[in-house]
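QA checklist item 7 of 12: single-chain prediction sanity check.
[x] sequence parsed
[x] length recorded as 266
[x] structure emitted
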Amino acid sequence: MDLFTIENLFTLLMLIALQAVLGFDNLLYISLESKRAPESEQKRVRWLGIGIAVALRIVLLFVLMTLIDYIQGDLFSVNWSGVMEATFTFESVIILFGGVFIMYTAVKEIWHMMALEVDGGVERKPQSAAKIIALIVMMNLVFSFDSILSAMALTDNFWIMAIAIIFSGVAMIWLADTVSTFLERNRMFEVLGLFILLIVGVMLLADGGHKANLSFFGSEITPMSKATFYFVITILVLSDIVQSKYQKNLLKKKQRMAAEAAANKS
C-alpha cells in the first residue's frame, strides 16, 4: 500500500487533530504530575516520560491492531440483579482504573493544598524522578486507549497512526513545558487544573462504566461527551478568570480606601 497518497495525508491530518483534542487531559496530567519531581529534574521528567510513553504507545497500537478481538472480548461479568450489572472488558477495566487513579491524585493534591499553612509549616518533599516518569508513562498509556481505538476507526494503516502518535508526542513535549511554566507563574490556576483533572477522572469512570455496560439499580452509566467536557472546562476557566479579576479589583479598592483614609488623617 502506498503510504504517501492524498487520502493518507488527509487521514494523517485528521489523526493529528484527533490526538490534539483527546490529548488535552493527558497534557494537563503530565504538567501537574511533573511538578512533584525535584525542580531541577522536572523538564527531564516531562521529556523522558513523554518520550517513553510515545514509544510504548506505538507498541500498544501494534498490540491492539493484532489482538483487538481479544482485548474487546469479555473478561468477566457481574450480575447482582436489581443492584449492579456489568460485563467488563480489558479496555473498560483499564479506563476505570485510570479514572480512579486520576481522581485519587487530584483529590490528594487538592487536600495537600488545603493543608498548606501560610507560614510554610507543611512542606512536602519532592518525589523521585523515576517514580514520576513511571506514573506519567502509565497514565499516558491509559489515555492512549481511547485515542488509538478512535484512530483505528479512521484507518487500518499502522504507519499513518504511528506518525500521528509521534507528531502528537513532539507537540506534547513542547506544550508540557509551556503549560508547566504557566502554572508556575500563575499558581492560582494550579487549583483550577486539579479540579479539571478531577473532572477528567469522572469522565474516564463514566466512559469505562459505559464500555462495561455498567448499571446501578437499573440505571445505565452514560459517557460524558467531549462537548460537555469542554463546555464544563470553559465555564470553570471563565469563572476562575472573573473571580481572579474581581479579587484584584477588591484589593485595589481596599488599598485606595486605606490610602485615602491615611491622607485624611494627616
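[x] summary fact logged: Confidence is low (pLDDT under 50) at residues 117-122.
[ ] second reviewer sign-off
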